[in-house]
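For the sake of transparency, this paper describes our internal protein records without simplification. Because each token names a local backbone shape, the row as a whole describes the fold. One such record is reproduced below, unchanged from the form in which we store it:
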Amino acid sequence: MIIPDEIKNIIEKLQQSGFEAYAVGGCVRDLLLEKKPKDWDIATNVSPEQIQEIFPESFYENKFGTVTVKQDSNDETLKEIEVTTFRVDAKYSDKRHPDSISFTRNLNEDLARRDFTINAIALMEIKNQKSKIKIIDPFDGQSDLTNCLIRAVGNPEERFGEDALRMLRAVRFAIELGFLIEEKTKKAIQKNAGWLQAIAKERIKDELVKIIMSERPQDGILLLHELGLLEFIIPELEKGIGVAQNRHHIYTIFEHSVFSLKFAAQKKYNLVVRLAALLHDIAKPQAKRGEGPDSTFYNHDMMGARAAARILERLHFSRDIIERVTNLIRHHMFVYDVGLVTEAAIRRLLVRAGKENMEDLIDLRVADRLGSGVPKAQPYRLRHFQYMIEKVQRDAISAKMLKISGNDIMKILNIEPGPKIGAILDVLLGEVIEDPKKNEKEYFKNRVKELNELDLTELRKMAKQKIEEKKEEEDLEIKGKYWVK
């Protein structure tokens, strides 16, 4: 295990001042799992005020004994290190915060207040002839790491009673690490899932986002349901359990939502697309009409957008996230048939959904199809849709690209407005398409006079060929990109 110099320096300074100091919690867990820690925490038996005396470059803005020590480091995870005095927490009346805390000089008492055994391990490096790592593990967390178990420290009901969010964290750790939740810990969650209602929605949202952005979010949603926690986070999802769909789906509504999220994660789509994949059919149970292969879900996209907005607002997601997710859900049923949908229809969709959202909308459509049990992620017509999206967004080939205007030509030739001016512009456009370096005012001054010697018919013939060739060339390029004819 490699302990960064920034951490060693803090621990050594505290020890040189006559105090104990250990790396603790998640950073130790990650080290033992041979992973790079996302952040670092140090525990010590010195008071917060004394920590600040030892480390002048620090700040203390809480009542839990945590001082943040600033470090000169190129690693973002090591620029600010939290150093916390050993403490014991009193009763948690609100299932969120301790009624009071008291400092202790005993490391084991500090570790005993932590959530899970794998997060209740401390270590330090002993300096002698050969550096040696000393590990303090009073709750056998190393064994649980070996056996891939999430186990509460001590009595699980007491731990969850102290902070009910720990039940959600148990799911998150299980999903992120690929661990199982130990049986007693699991039963305590199932028994007390309702305690989650006491937790601030922002904290629930933060844990839910970590689950959704993990590599296996579908397992997280299923585990939340199994433990009874989903009922207190997104109960609307559970209304789709056992509700069959029509000939276009082989899964129930709930299964389809979970599988859509699974494939969105496999393709490493962003948070907005993953949330939309999970919630895009949230209104189907209410919209369903009829049974069997011909059942319908009329208007479930619009109803789903409104329902998703309520869910995300309840969980205190940002306004930007809410608007982007609901926009995708509202438009995820866009119709596209090769040869029938016109460029005008595509432009209308771009206006309604926003061209900046097209990539996310296509990603949602892919996750939706895969989650339906359809084996082909991007059938021909979806590729053709992508081709049309890009085609209509390309800058049109027009005389506006030129560094000369019709008014300029009239001044150079001292003539009145007429069809010849447009024809000259078209010829110049064809020449610039062939050689972009010619798009200069000085070149145009002489060339306009030369072209004025030709008649209108000849000018139009010269222009048409070059412009049509360029349009055809660009279209072939976009078609080749998406493998369409």
